[in-house]
Amino acid sequence: MKFVTTSLGRGAGVLVAQGMIWVVYGFVTSSLPGGKSDYESNAVQFLDPAFGKLTDTEVESTGAKPSAMSVFAYATAGKHIIIFGGEIWRDPKAH
């Protein structure tokens, strides 16, 4: 088994669509105390299992790209990733 490191932190969506493993959004915890520099990410990465490497990418989308967020619900439909709800700022008391 090979492990791959992502630049995303926690609360990201991890799903399979069109044979790729996608890691979308999430929040990143800073090294500063108190969470003052934590941030929500709008990064989209995919892993092609044949190559074993995560790739940052801009993906084709319709409409405006959703705001950076974490801890959301999601679903796939063919080549589409559908995101519902989520947090736009991490509440340190909630996690």
TrEMBL record:
It is an enzyme of class 4 (lyase). Its EC number is 4.8.1.5. Keywords: Iron, Kelch repeat, Lyase, Membrane, Repeat, Transmembrane, Transmembrane helix. The keyword Transmembrane helix applies. It catalyses: a (Z)-N-(sulfonatooxy)alkanimidothioate = a nitrile + sulfur + sulfate. The chain crosses the membrane at residues 12-32. Its cofactor is Fe(2+). The keyword Acetylation does not apply. One of its GO terms (molecular function) is lyase activity. GO terms for biological process: glucosinolate catabolic process; nitrile biosynthetic process. This is thiohydroximate-O-sulfate sulfate/sulfur-lyase (nitrile-forming). It comes from Arabidopsis thaliana (Mouse-ear cress).
